[in-house]
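Let us practice reading a record.
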Amino acid sequence: MRTNAILPIGITALLCLTSCNATNSTNQTDNQVNAKPSNQAQTSSSPNSQSLVKTTVDSSKAEKFTDTAKYLAGIKLNNNSPLAQSQKSSIWLKQQQYFENNWSKLETQQLTKVTQWSKQELQQVNNLSPSVFYPFSGPDFLYAYSFFPKGKEYILMGLEPAGKVLDLTAASENDRARKLEEVRSSLFAILQLSFFRTNDMKVDLEKQGVLPILYVFLARTQNRILDVQNVGIDKQGKIQPFVKGMISGVKISFVPEGESQARNLYYFSADLSNDGLKKRPELNQFISGVNKEVTYLKAASYLMYNDSFAEIKKNIIQQSKYVLQDDSGMPMKAFDNSKWNLKFYGNYTNPISLFSGSYQANLRKIYSTQKDIKPLNFGIGYKMTASESNLMLAESKNISTSKNP
């Protein structure tokens, strides 16, 4: 399907775009690294405890990854960085000005409010340091991290390739200028809205992949990148070093500023439709093994309202402990009242015209009759005004039962 309408990244056509490489496996989940660079620091992890990647942190590579991310994100580097001189050029100063203007607005209008809301409403969830599963995400690490800043790992999935990041230290000024322009173009929608527009991003990300955008979001959320590895899902549904034929992806190990515990961000290029899962049963096996302490859904094109996405919907419902979504994720009827506690926020009127067929009368009734629904002071999803945006937090009653035997 092709359309000029607003859709989240990676949903325009149900095709699996792949290109990437992977890691080694072992059997621990916690990562410990020094806050300062150290050649002896170790990190190991798995998004589903099926497979583990153990990596010695190379401080020089970590510094290069982090400097590259900051450069792309318009953040001033130390004078001893190999890229410091290039930051005096007009092409980079333009990048810095772009982010100073646009990122400050985003933080004021969106991110600060999302973070405050998360502290108030998701404290119990974030105290778990959860694994966060974010299907139909594209490269939107930004909102996953803003809602769940304590996640020990983030598993993102979209149709776009992971791609690669240009070696900026060896690149010409023209190549650096082109790369900076690509980043600005790719980020325009999410800086103005809360999601990527598919047709705009489809063109950009087929050329460069999602990796440069992930770099920017990591840098702008004050994370140091420790390692970047191309990964793939093998026929047994496990993460391995990428070889041709695998479902491709990337693993980024990072550590937040002021912390010493390493976290992991995974992105896989994958088709999550029933047909896609049938063609690649290893993908279904992998997803079934993912620890879904939290599933997050935003601007998901109402795909799981359709029978053609029934399998991924069933998987999420059966295996998630918490689900945070706007109304474009799964229809409310998917959540059995005997199995889920539901809490609503904001306001629900109707979907945007493109998705008018996904209107939920039962959800509208809840918003019309319940008097204790808390408002949102930020826009989220397709309706970007706070007065029209909605969120639903679903908590499995199995959790409530275990807390109150």
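A brief commentary: Residues 1-45, 49-54, 194-203 have pLDDT under 50 and may be disordered.
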